[in-house]
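User: My collaborator sent over this chain with a note saying "see what the structure looks like." That's all I know about it. Can you take a look?
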Amino acid sequence: GTLDIDSSSGYVNIKLSAENGFEFEADTSSGDIETFFDSDLSFSSRGHHAQGTYGANTQENRIEIQTTSGDIRISKY
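Assistant: Without extra context I'll predict from the sequence alone. Here is the result:
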């Protein structure tokens, strides 16, 4: 399925199993993006946009995150 998160001035912290597969896109106007799969992502020159895929069977799962003023952290549990 799709996980779609929008925050105007908040920190986004998600914990996922490393066994999941998904498409990923994240934007933040003034924050940092940090994931456990950074090596699978393409980052904009300023690091405020990240996009890519992680794992297998990514067609069915998508994570979209957008923040105006906040960090985005994706970690493993």
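A starting point for your reply to your collaborator: The chain has a mean pLDDT of 92.
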